[in-house]
Design a protein that fits this description.
It contains 18 helices and 21 strands. The chain has 497 residues and is α/β, with parallel strands linked by helices.
Length: 497
């Protein structure tokens, strides 16, 4: 078989985005996925006839002229996506100590709505927004048109988000509110950078929406684009070895039975298992591999999906961040009915007609110690104790959320759950980490990876490189592809699409 130009390991968003970009450049691309379905955290699955999303609950910067809209247009999938805007007057609602705080789209409206609750701190909110805007605009469409992926911002990677917020306001309640959607970046007071916090929040303040009909259709659209461009996308095809010759990958072994040749190899899986596949002498130092293995993973999520009786509960046009009482929102310690519940994200999937909620997801942050007793098990083989443990957390999550959303409990038809172990088994992410490697602002150079590796034709992509999330992974995919075809050339093409 003739070697491919590019072989991509993993069909998560990063891998599929790279495949769409490079196949559009005329490269002969092959994406291999070890599971039967494509998409990684874009996957949706069916239970009782309902589509349940796994990890992509809402996205930002989706309006024309905004950065994610531009990427989706260049990928060639924008016209095939079903996107529904969240309420621009309140896309996220923070509930804290019995009060409700809206996050609105558009900086002026964001400021006005929060200033209704904090009139004496209006200048503080304005200062916070200027900071977000300054960081977020470094990856604008205008920047792409100038021939660059980013116009800077690296200095913000070494600044603590918590300290930056504290520098904007002395009001402790406002500080907590501004950190209220902390689950978007598994916020850690010591580690989370201003860069990560600002990039994510700037994106949603620009515009916010969610996918209708399951996020799986995004992955399916990218697969279709790759195939239209002459590329290949294969399921049930696990990369089991990267065979090296003279310091380069000569072939990729698939399912331990066949070998595929490629000029370049891009890995969209976690870097630790990627480098473990290398078979043969290479230039990657053992010290670097040891350092990589020592880096902490971000938190995982315990998810409870509420499958609702048809037409029984109105559509939710916003997300809710419901916080347990605790003095510091940057702490993920908290207790509810004997379960560690510091905060729950409530996110809804609308029915086809948009009038009712079909499925509601409850996401609870969960550290590895909670599921450690079953760490050595696999999906479907964890026993009765694990099932009882999941049921207990599901009940506690519902009991925590129900007082905030009257009528929800009565609308529940059935319940489905997944722990970080489930995500670990289906996505291959160590510990079921939601956002990959922790990017530590105290040592930004030691916890961030380049798309290039010391193996000449091996490249990395995905959420472990830069900022996680839909937009962050699209930018990382573009960075990986720029390493192959040139930054000025590719960014201008994307920017002027």
């Amino acid at each position: 078989m003739k070697p491919f130009d590019v072989l991509i390991i993993g069909s998560g968003l990063g891998g599929l985005a790279c495949g769409a970009l490079l196949s559009r450049e005329g490269m002969n691309v092959c994406v291999v996925e070890k599971h039967a379905r494509f998409g990684g955290c874009l996957q949706s699955f069916r239970r009782q006839g309902r589509l349940l999303d796994t990890g992509m609950h809402y996205v930002g910067s989706i309006a024309p002229g905004q950065i994610l809209h531009q990427y989706l247009k260049y990928f060639g999938i924008l016209d095939r996506l079903r996107l529904s805007p969240l309420d621009p007057a309140c896309y996220d609602e923070i509930r804290l100590d019995g009060r409700q705080y809206p996050f609105a789209c558009g900086y002026d409206r964001f400021i006005d709505r929060l200033a209704e609750q904090f009139p004496a701190e209006r200048a503080d909110i304005e200062a916070y927004c200027r900071l977000l805007h300054r960081v977020g605009r470094t990856i604008s469409v205008e920047t792409l048109r100038s021939g660059r992926l980013s116009s800077g911002g690296e200095e913000y990677m070494g600044i603590s988000a918590a300290e930056a917020i504290a520098g904007c306001t002395r009001n402790p309640v406002l500080r907590n509110v501004l950190a209220g959607s902390i689950l978007l970046h598994s916020g850690d007071r010591q580690q989370t950078s201003l860069y990560e916090h600002a990039m994510i929040h700037h994106s949603y303040i620009e515009s916010a929406g969610r996918f209708v009909g399951g996020s799986q259709h995004v992955a399916d659209a990218l697969v279709e684009t790759i195939r239209r461009n002459g590329g290949t996308v294969r399921a049930d095809s696990e990369a089991t070895r990267l065979i090296l010759r003279d310091g380069r990958i000569d072939a990729v072994e698939i399912n331990r039975t066949e070998q595929l040749g490629a000029r370049y190899v891009i890995s969209d899986i976690h870097p630790v298992p990627t480098f473990a596949l290398l078979d043969g002498p290479h230039a990657i130092r053992p010290r670097f591999l040891s350092h990589l293995q020592s880096l902490p993973q971000s938190i995982g999520f315990f998810t409870t999906w509420l499958l609702l009786r048809p037409g029984s509960y109105p559509s939710l046009d916003r997300n809710y961040y419901l916080h347990n009482r605790r003095p510091d929102l940057w702490s993920l310690t908290g207790d509810h009915l004997g379960c560690r519940i510091p905060v729950v994200l409530v996110s809804a999937q609308p029915s086809d007609d948009g009038r009712f909620s079909d499925v509601i997801s409850l996401l609870l942050p969960m550290e590895a110690g909670e599921w450690a007793p079953w760490a050595g098990t696999t999906t479907g083989k964890r026993g009765d104790a694990y099932t009882a443990w999941k049921e207990r957390y599901a009940r506690a999550s519902i009991d925590f959320v129900a007082p905030h959303l009257p009528g929800l409990r009565e609308a529940i038809q059935s319940v489905c759950t997944a722990s970080p172990l489930t995500y670990r088994d289906y996505t291959g992410t160590p510990d079921g980490s939601a956002y990959g490697l922790v990017k530590d602002c105290r040592n930004p150079l030691l916890s961030r990876l380049s798309p290039r590796t010391k193996v000449e034709n091996l490249f990395l992509t995905g959420q472990n490189l830069n900022v996680h999330g839909f937009l962050g992974v699209c930018v990382s995919a573009a960075a990986t592809c720029c390493a192959l075809v040139g930054e000025t050339y590719l960014t201008r093409k994307i920017g002027y699409e």
